[in-house]
Specification:
CATH class of the largest domain: Alpha Beta
Largest sheet: 7 strands, mixed
Number of strands: 16
Mean pLDDT: 90
Order of helices and strands: HHEEEHHEHEHEEEEEEEHHHEEHEEH
Number of domains: 3
Number of helices: 11
CATH architecture of the largest domain: 3-Layer(aba) Sandwich
CATH topology of the largest domain: Aspartate Aminotransferase, domain 2
Distance between the termini: 62 Å
């Protein structure tokens, strides 16, 4: 009887796959894989339910698309972590099994970014927004310099102003942050210079590891691990993980240890970098599940050949979409071309087609596009092409734009 049920489930699963294999509806979503699961109840009469999980084209700005390999490994760890008989969210963070995860995750960061000696990688809570305060609290003695390139830079400036003098060396606020300023002077009497390398809302990016006459600090929340970085040029790099390196819940910090302990103010224990350096990110319970998914995501990056290969992929994806935006008679990019982000591509309808924005949004949604609505301060559309976003999804969006143009011209 058990053999009968197994054979019947196998036959039903095959039938479902064959039925939907050539479905035009699923082809329009670009769904080459349809996952079918069978649930059977061993009753007197065979009963079954079929569930089809569709994979959409995920362009969310964060949290965002993650590698399926990382997701699958994390699902298994939720069920049984490292053969412990416990879930990864149940195991003690003081166990040898968890310590192995922390060690491997830090080692992957150091390997992929080629982090030199003298730097410590930390995994903290609180998001990048907490770093807006921690940075000046640990580094600002008299004056700090900031580059204002968007909302997140503005928030960082606001927090720093509560602790000392802040000099905004340049800003692109006058044009709604559609470019990254150039030609400014970094004041040599400042304690540090803070930059935001990628701006998710406005679609601009600073991809050069600049030479700074003073310690350089960078918020790399949305472009870390998208390209090689010369870490030696930075005193500190930080960011939320929920773009290229994992889910929300863990914040990465790469800090040059020789830069610590130079301010005279009292720093609360949890806001002091030295606390977390001394305790290897486990002064308090770390965000274990988020770190585990981060580890699996970094392993995926390594499996693809590291950051040089990742950068090639990201350039190819960004070029594909930008070329269509520039070609298409209905759309226009919002960022200046020499400041365009590879991670977050922002575009709007040309003025004569402005009334068709809602129609295109619905059109794209029907074809499986998710997360392309632009931020309210910019409007239009935004496609986030983080590392795990496949080029097939980018091509599907391009096809969608071309089809919409043909139907509306």
């Amino acid at each position: 009887m058990n053999h009968f049920f197994k054979k019947e489930r196998k036959n039903k699963s095959k039938q479902i796959r064959q039925k939907y294999k050539n479905s035009s509806k699923f082809k329009s979503f670009g769904l080459s894989n349809i996952f079918v699961s069978l649930q059977s109840r061993k009753t007197k009469k065979f009963k079954s339910k079929y569930f089809i999980m569709k994979r959409v084209h995920n362009f969310n700005a964060g949290p965002c698309v993650l590698p399926k390999e990382a997701i699958n490994a994390s699902i298994e760890a939720l069920k049984d972590f490292s053969g412990t008989g416990m879930s990864v969210i149940e195991v003690s963070h003081r166990s040898k099994e968890w310590q192995a995860v922390m060690d491997e995750t830090e080692a992957l960061w150091k390997e992929l970014l080629e982090i030199p000696d003298g730097y410590k990688v930390l995994f903290l809570g609180g998001g990048a927004s907490t770093q807006f305060l921690m940075v000046p609290m640990n580094f600002l003695e008299k004056k700090a310099a900031y580059l204002e390139t968007g909302v997140w830079a503005k928030k960082a400036i606001k927090e720093a102003k509560g602790l000392g003098e802040i000099e905004v060396v340049a800003s692109s606020a006058e044009t709604t942050f559609n470019y990254v300023p150039k030609g400014y002077t970094i004041p040599k009497d400042a304690d540090y210079f803070h930059i935001t390398t990628n701006n998710t809302i406005y679609g601009t990016e600073l991809r050069e590891d600049m030479d700074s006459p003073i310690p350089l600090i960078a918020d790399m929340s949305s472009d870390i691990m998208s390209r090689p970085v010369d870490v030696s040029k930075y005193a500190l790099i930080y960011g939320g993980a929920q773009k290229n390196v994992g889910p929300a819940g863990v914040t990465f910090v790469i800090v040059k240890e020789s830069m610590l302990g130079k301010v005279s103010r009292y720093i609360p224990t949890m806001l002091k970098y030295q606390t977390h350096v001394d305790e290897s990110s486990m002064f308090n319970t770390p965000p274990v599940f988020s770190i585990f998914v981060m580890k699996e995501t970094l392993k995926w990056i390594k499996s693809l050949g590291g950051l040089k290969e990742i950068e090639k992929m990201n350039i190819k994806k960004a070029d594909l979409l930008y070329n269509e935006i520039d070609r298409n008679s209905m759309f226009v990019g919002t960022a200046e071309k020499d400041s365009r982000s590879r991670m977050n591509i922002c575009f709007v309808m040309k003025s004569e087609y402005k009334d068709k924005e809602d129609a295109f949004m619905s059109f794209a949604k029907e074809r499986g596009m998710v997360g392309i609505k632009g931020h309210r301060s910019v409007g239009g559309f935004r496609a986030s092409l983080y590392n795990a976003c496949p080029i097939e999804s980018v091509q599907a969006l391009v096809d969608c734009m071309q089809e919409f143009e043909k139907l509306n011209k």
